[in-house]
Amino acid sequence: MFVSRLYKLFTLSTVIDKANLYLKICNAISKEKALHKFPEFAKEIELFISQDPSSSKKYLEWQLNILKSQPALAPEIADVTNLFHKYHPFLENKELNSYQPQDFTELSEKLQTIKEEREAKKQKRKTYNIDPAKVACGHKIVYTSPGENPKYEVLLITNKDASMHFGKDSRWCIRRGDKSFFEDYDANNVVFFFIFNKHLPKTDKFAQIALSYQRDAQNNILELQCWDAFDTQMVAADVEQELDDNEIHSIINLTESIAQAQPKSLLAKIDSGEVPEEELYKLYLKENNPETKTHLLGALMLQSKNPDLLRKLYNETEEHYYLLSNKYLPLDLVEDGLGDEDYNARQVALENPNITMELLLRNMDKPEIKSVISNRTDAPLPVIYELAKERKYWTNLINNPITPSEILVLISNDGHFSASDGVQSAVLEHPNLTLELAYKFIDRGNALKRIEDLAGKNYTLFVGDLKNYRLPIYKAEKMLMSNTLDDVEKHYLRKYIASKSANETILSELLALKDSDFITKEDKSNLRLAMCHNKYLPLTILEALAYDKDINPGNIALNPNITTDIIKILLDREDFSPSTFATLVANQKLSPDALRLVANQWLQYNDDDFKGILHMIAIHPNTPADVLKKLIQSNMSDPAKEYAQNRIIK
User: Fold this and answer.
1) In what order do the strands lie in the sheet containing 152-157?
2) Chain segment 64-116, per-residue pLDDT in tens
3) Does 106 share its domain with 170?
4) Who's near 396: CB < 8 A, 6+ residues apart?
5) What is the pLDDT of residues 314-324, one digit of tens each?
6) Distance (Å, rounded) from C-alpha 369 to C-alpha 383?
7) What angle is formed at CA 71 by the lines to CA 65 and CA 77, rounded to 5 degrees?
8) pLDDT of 213
9) Residue 599's CB: how many other CB atoms inside 10 A?
10) Which whole number is the average pLDDT over 374-397?
11) Mean pLDDT for the stretch of residues 605-634
12) Could you tell me where the DSSP H helices lie in 203-265?
């Protein structure tokens, strides 16, 4: 019953939620793409998918990359993936894709340790035995229907033992002794009533109804929730309508007035800070219920300003790490927490507001402490440089304002990492950004403004004219030849000309530019890509691009004016792929001769996985009849063959 309302005190879950962790969504790869990319791992792919804990195959590509590097066999990789899925909230780094093959063994060991720690804690939990005396004092009959055979009996429930005893025939969560659900509600000032319908069999969902009244700090009713015996939540009006019973309406009115008058429980007083520190400690020493004791300890952790008491609690309690974030805890105990073998203890210690850089540096052997240091603005620069050697701290470093520009350059030069929009945005907003580094992201939306700030020059109007095609191409070509432009203006103007010009001389000069002529190493390839999309591009330039091994054949295939001769050049390239066929056939201007060449080449593959390309050829408006006849004899689907046959007849 009831989703647990976690008490406001400091709990393990809030520790984990507050920690500085990397959060990034993994991109799933389909089975078909996986088989195409890793055909040698067909059996392993089946294994990974059959044991996928996410049901979305989001871990598949990472698993295959690990398998390819051979740090472990497929069954072990599958086991580690399952452990990661289950226990990743307890890891300092929650991004699976950031773990490289060389990190696999360490990740496996970490997850195994976390598993053992969690299982050990589960085994420590004792079965909660109901105390008859507590049942007797934990309930009160507040209403009984009139007559010799009363229909309803209503109980006010004030403790866990009574909730377990009287709720045993329901599915409510507060009947469970091994969980703290009742204590969590109780601490949040919730009042419970159980309604028993004695005229119904116990198996009926309305044989028992629970009412929970959520109250504010002044005991005013905020909300009423109703639950049938099967733990289905309802509003009061639905209960009255379902039972069609005026007596229920009267019972709800009665329980509401009782709930408002009911004094706060001890846990509710503790939760609202109404119990003095001295009394809290006395209660803590006397309490035997582990869940209540946890609440008391949490309250002491929040309220106590007495270093001596905190030291005493720290030394006496098994769960002493709850105290590690208290700013009045002596620093030697905080440092003790930083060196604790328990990961969760270290995380709580890192929340302490008084933690010094000196303490962190003395315990820098722990990864989560390195992560905190990488976020701190008082971290020594030599340490920042050292942390930059480990990729897992880069996200923190690019968001740390003290990170030197050299480290920003190092991180930005990692193409895979810097491809993220978040990373690029963080680098561009960094106070130590240099003009040269800003150039690297020049085509990103907010880069131009930063470049203007750093260069002290306004480029907005000039770039706006190019993006909105307000500058005639002949003027752009003349401007480029004037040699009066700076590097930023050349960057934008070259790209504009490459995408619009038909001037073979100027385009040839652009092709002849060296890497040193560009402000970023990506500029050269981006310029060629712009040419591939240029519908005015001279065929001599397109042919030169087709021979360029640095340009993907698929980009050449995008040009609407591609010829049969250029397609032959592409077909001879080793990097020509099935996707390039699809790009070619999607070109509605492709000539009959070109379609004949593509079809003849594709029919040699006879690959069932790519029948769609044959279908595309069949429906292309320029496909000649002799090609359609060949397609009919191929392994196309019957509807596609019928379509091709009808085209021949017409």
Assistant:
1) 139-144, 152-157, 190-197, 208-215, 221-228, 233-234
2) 988 888 767 888 898 899 899 888 878 888 888 888 888 888 898 889 888 88
3) no
4) 20, 371, 374, 375
5) 887 777 777 88
6) 12
7) 65
8) 96
9) 24
10) 95
11) 80
12) 236-243, 246-261
Are 263 and 141 within one domain?
Answer: yes
Q: For residue 424, is it within any domain?
A: no
User: What's the pLDDT tens digit per position in 443-456?
Assistant: 887 899 999 999 99
Q: Specify whether 262 is located in the same domain as 359.
A: no
* Single residue among 246, 269, 292 that ends a domain in this structure: 269
Distance separating alpha carbons of residues 438 and 214, to the nearest angstrom? 54
| 430-455 mean pLDDT | 91
- Give the separation between CA 352 and CA 510, rounded to whole angstroms: 59
- Point out the domain boundary residue: 365, 400, 428: 365
- 355 and 256 fall within a common domain: no
Looking only at the bridges linking them, the beta strands covering 208-215 and 221-228 are: antiparallel
pTM, two decimals, is: 0.56
Answer yes or no: do 528 and 591 share one domain: yes
Cα 66 from Cα 34, distance rounded (Å) = 13
Where helices occur in 19-88 by DSSP H, the ranges are 31-37, 42-50, 60-69, 74-87
On whether both 120 and 148 belong to a single domain, the answer is: no
- Same domain? For 630 and 490 the reply is yes
Nearest residue to 489 via CA among 522, 527, 459, 454: 459
Domain that holds residue 630: 474-496+521-649
Query: Tokens standing for 326?
Result: 């208290």
Domain count, the chain: 4
- Tell me the pLDDT band of 611, cut-offs 50, 70 and 90: low
**Backbone CA torsion sign across 96, 97, 100, 101:** positive
SS3 breakdown of the chain: % helix, strand, coil, rounded to 5?
60, 5, 35
Name the residue with tokens 């934990």.
138
Coil, helix or strand at residue 228: strand
